[in-house]
Amino acid sequence: MGNISSSSSKLAEKCPMLEKSELPLIASSFRIVSKNSDKCKEEELMKFWGSQMDPRLAQYITNFLFGPLGQRATFVDLPRFAELYVYTVRGTLEERINVLLGSLGQPPDSESTEIAYPLIKEYVEAVVSSYMRAIRLEGGPEFKSWESRGFRIVKECIQKLAESLVYDVVQQGTQKVTRADAERWLNKNPIFLKMLEHVFSHLYNYRSVKNSSEEKKKDDSDDSKARRKEHFPQQEVVLHAMLPLCEGLQYMPDYPAFTDLSQMLFVNANLPNAQQHKWRFLFSSQIHGESFSTLLGRIIDQGSTVVIVEDANGYIFGGYATASWALGPNYLGDENSFLFTLRPKMRCFPSTGYNPHYQYLNLHQQTMPNGMGMGGQHNYWGLWLDSEYGLGECAESCTTYKGYFQMSATKKFTVRNIEVWGVGEKPINEDEPERNSSGSILDGNADSKAMLKLSGREQYSDGYREEPKD
């Protein structure tokens, strides 16, 4: 017991930046990659971590730990190894900037450093790609709930997600990024910081099957497990993906998705925190049919929703509506609502506060517009879906949402697909009658065999398209 206490003290002295709960994790990870040595070689580290991340990120990590080409160190020691973990997982803004600069081969302490924008963009893309790989390899319940229903990770969408996170790092009219630019960008980019934290938590927690079994044998011998628990009270590390749990597609093993997981993650990350944990499937034009009245019947009184539209040109866009949809002449919602575009670019357009025209829904009116609208005003909608199903419109400008640009390929567009998802928990409505057993598909009460039949590809010969392989 005394030896372990002494070992704990020595680790703390070598790595004072580590918290007590982090000591066993970092020590165990370093022991594996260094093969029980006090120094680790580059090839040993990359051989162990290489399969867990984008190859470009592996090169950036090498730059930070061992130095840039021409100045490579032969080994890295435990304190430097621990430093990378601390800086990326819970580091200050300055420490994370130092990792960025060091990864790109730049002196971390220089205030006058200028980096070409394409280098920053590639670094961000490497982190985003590694994040998507990490959540796939971890196979958490959120990822599985989407992947098992036909949603995939598409390389092109990863690139667009990365571009959406980094496009505003440069000042307008220049392609050079200063340290001040990078600090400003990181400070307002929580999505990228969460991805960075997750990627490095994944790497330091990674254990191969072989190493895991060897570690277990060692820890189970001579009561060392109990003694380690006393001196190294390591907490179980749970990595939470920014993907929500997908609910409502349990009878759809091959859902005809027209979005990928990178796009769903982008929308979800911009929702209020309280609604990011779950998406409830409400409507799909490919499943429920091309009917505006059916759409209304499935989304009214369902709480906050995300509406996703694909036009005939393949542009994908939509909006987050904060209030339950309800028929009437008045605008609903609040300043937390936003519009977004997913293809050809990923962008989010938050509320300007200029007007409260967040969401509108009406039907069978002679003097009012009939359809669903978000943002803008009558005849100048940010997003409009007409009650005559299949017709839509996106104005060239919209004062309700900041940074908005026309989301569809043409101002007036033809709808190819519509999806609506409830986000967060469904609001409790005590007056709502129970659905009968012959409810529509995916209500949860219909015959499961019929649902499985409807999910077959032959039912979607006009609308189903295979997602490209990553």
Topology:
Blueprint: H1 2-14, H2 23-33, E1 39-41, H3 42-49, H4 55-66, E2 75-77, H5 78-90, H6 93-103, E3 114-116, H7 117-138, H8 141-147, H9 155-166, E4 176-178, H10 179-187, H11 190-205, H12 209-220, H13 224-231, E5 245-247, H14 261-269, E6 278-284, H15 285-288, H16 292-299, E7 305-311, E8 316-321, E9 328-332, E10 338-343, E11 347-350, E12 359-362, E13 371-377, E14 380-386, E15 391-393, E16 412-423, H17 448-454
Parallel strand pairs: 5-6
Antiparallel strand pairs: 1-2, 3-4, 6-16, 7-8, 7-16, 8-10, 9-12, 10-11, 12-13, 13-14, 14-15, 15-16
Helix pairs in contact: 4-6, 4-7, 5-11, 7-9, 7-11
Summarize the structure in short.
This protein is an alpha+beta fold and 470 residues long. It is built from 17 helices and 16 strands. Strands 5, 6, 7, 8, 9, 10, 11, 12, 13, 14, 15 and 16 form a 12-stranded mixed sheet that branches.
